[in-house]
Amino acid sequence: MDAATITAPAVLILLGPPGAGKGTQARMLEDKFGLVQLSTGDLLRGAVAAGTEAGKAAKAVMEAGDLVSDGIVTAILRDRMAETDCAKGVILDGFPRTTVQAEALDGLLASTDQKINAAISLEVDDTEMVTRISGRYTCAGCGEGYHDTYKQPAEDGKCDKCGHTEFTRRADDNAETVASRLSAYHAQTAPLIDYYQAQGVLKGIDAMGQIDDIARDLQALVGDIMD
Ligand SMILES: [Zn+2]
After folding, report:
1. How far is the CA of 140 from the centre of ligand 1 (A)?
2. Which residues contact 179 (CB under 8 A, 6 or more apart)?
3. How far apart are CA 156 and CA 222, in angstroms?
4. What is the spatial distance between Cα 136 and Cα 170, in angstroms, rounded to a whole number?
5. Taking the mean position of all CA atoms in its chain, how far away is CA 101?
6. How far is Cα 25 from Cα 16, in angstroms, rounded to an integer?
7. How far, in Å, is the centroid of ligand 1 from the Cα of 130?
8. 114 partner at 20 to 30 Å CA-CA among 36, 167, 168, 220?
9. Within a 10 A sphere around the Cβ of 59, how many other Cβ atoms?
10. Which element (helix H / strand E) includes 126?
11. Strand (E) positions, the chain?
């Protein structure tokens, strides 16, 4: 490899409310750019399983029924990012969750001459999101997905695929629950949005379109960063 092509691993933060397709988009970024998505839950489970120092500390805290401290999570993240599969870069999902954690992450990255390349926010229209999510239902026979507004069976109350007449809805997909999940997300994320906006690394992606269109915009953005 030419020395000029060796660059520090990219550090991307992916922000997006439940239902915005964050997981799907992160997997596509992994495939296209060789990035590794790191979620807090996976990091903790991995470190505990691997029995690293930080993993042992996390295990003891969790067994005592306490929340793992930012310091331990940051140490686990540092260990994980040093592994060879993260050489191209990482997509952080669910961390940082607070500005205190964001500052800890900046400190961690500064110690290895790294920085956050972008905090990418998947932007949604809350009213439209409530309609989309709360309208979903599924055929109880074959699992085919339907929607009150966007995809009704051709014959009312009868599955197009298998003819079944019973349908199910996820209890937590009702409009009120979805709206409150969204407002909780915005309340929690607003300080982080401000934090990364102030650093000049915040990038917004319109996440209300088709999955492929969102993917195209996101991959163009990440492609520029990875160049
Ligand atoms: Zn069916």
Report:
1. 6
2. 126, 130
3. 44
4. 8
5. 16
6. 11
7. 24
8. 220
9. 17
10. helix 126-134
11. 10-15, 36-39, 89-93, 118-123, 136-139, 145-147, 167-168, 202-206
Which residues have CB under 8 Å from 129's CB, separation 6+? 17, 19, 20, 178, 182, 208
Active-site positions read 22, 97, 136, 170, 181
Band of pLDDT at residue 226, cut at 50, 70 and 90 = confident
- For residue 52, give the 3-state DSSP assignment: coil
pLDDT tens digits, residue range 159-216? 999 999 999 999 888 999 999 999 999 999 999 999 999 999 999 999 998 889 999 9
Separation of 151 CA from ligand 1 center, angstroms? 13
Ligand 1 midpoint to CA 173 (Å): 20
The residues that bridge with 118 in the sheet, in sequence order, are 12
Beta bridge partners of 37: 91
Structure tokens at 69: 């401290």
